[in-house]
Amino acid sequence: MIIILSPEATENDLQELIGNLKERGYGVHVSKGVEKTIVGAIGAPDEDKAVIAEQIESFRYVERVVPILKPYKLVGREFHPDKTVINAGGVEIGGSKVVVMAGPCCVESEQQTLETAAAVKSAGATILRGGAFKPSTSPYSFQGLGEDGLKILAKAREATGLPFITEVMDARDVELIARYSDILQIGTRNMANFPLLREVGETRKPVMLKRGMSSTIEEWLQAAEYIAGRGNYSIMLCERGIRTFETFTRNTFDISAIPAVGMLSHLPIVADPSHGTGKWQLVSAVSRAAIAAGADALIVEVHPHPEKALKDGAQSLRPDKFQQLMNEVGSVAAAVGRSV
Ligand code: PEP
Ligand code: MN
To answer: At 15, is the secondary structure helix, strand, or coil?
Structure first.
């Protein structure tokens, strides 16, 4: 249930309520909005709920108690009506500026990563992407450079000032990767890896949670709830395309997921037009559509020599094409009252 405090409620009242709820065995999460303070009380047995709600509603400083019927609570709009703005290494995601993250699919070498980082920065990207621990459908394809890749990304950050996002696949690697990176990426293949979600929920690093390629929006929001349930509310949701019968594109980019997530959740939404299409020729158009639909950020694959890329060359933009994309998305952002 969520408990909406009356405007006169003091900090002492809030603390008293939290103590009361904890005594009853609830997990307590507080959302302080511009206008209202909302307390989420999670985890009481179903049969007690109505009685407890009535008791809580009798408190002088409680305006209203509302049951949350949805299977996700902390990431939903009822609990937190205002949009969440995340600070990732000094870059705000979810505000009026559309953030562009860009870089190679994989960290292949220091030279390739530093060159790409410099190119995406000069085109206007403000976050670097790059995989060091790579999820691969085939066990025979490139698996990433591991910690050496993280060291290269850290060097690129030092050289450019760009914070970086990189994927974590295994709960045992969370501590290591969180030590290096600014944002933890959970890939599509791990959206429902619940021990991993709990582990990143224990950190206070921003997390970008990609949609499972065969997951519904509701399943995706429940996956985010696993992270928030551990106290880490710095979560972004990333639409990266889903499986359909279409084979011309690698995945089917679900444009409607962007406003749907905006309606259901307060979390920022990121669009990945690279994995969403699998074809570099389609990346700019889908980026523009995503921004028009309300995306808060893009994540785009860029490689100085896509023909030599160890992974995802067909969907990677050369730096000049990425610069072109940056020029093209600006007017769409302006049309929806934002900037890039
Ligand atoms: C990636 O970002 O390189 C990646 C592997 O993405 P996804 O999990 O969406 O396939
Ligand atoms: Mn990739």
So the answer is: helix
Choose among 250, 248, 271, 241: nearest CA to 332.
271
Q: By the 8 A CB rule, do 233 and 84 touch?
A: yes
DSSP-based three-state secondary structure for 184: strand
Nearest atom within ligand 1 for CA of residue 131: 3
pLDDT for the residue numbered 46: 65
The packing angle between helices 257-264 and 217-229, to 10°, is 40
Of 224, 164, 165, the closest CA to residue 191 belongs to: 224
Atom of ligand 1 nearest to the CA of 134: 5
- 312 CA from centroid of ligand 2 (Å): 5
- Ligand 1 in contact with 29 (CB < 6 A)? no
User: Which pTM does this prediction carry?
Assistant: 0.96
Backbone angles phi, psi at 88, to 5 degrees: -115, 100
Ligand 1 atom with minimal separation from the 213 CA: 9
Name which residue sits closest to atom 4 of ligand 1, judged by CA. 187
Residue ranges and CATH numbers for the domains of the chain are: 2-66 (3.30.70.1140), 86-335 (3.20.20.70)
298-335 confidence digits (pLDDT tens): 999 999 999 999 999 999 999 999 999 999 999 999 99
Q: Which residues contact 64 (CB under 8 A, 6 or more apart)?
A: 3, 4, 57
Does the CB atom of residue 210 touch ligand 1 within 6 A? yes
Tokens representing 49?
């709920």
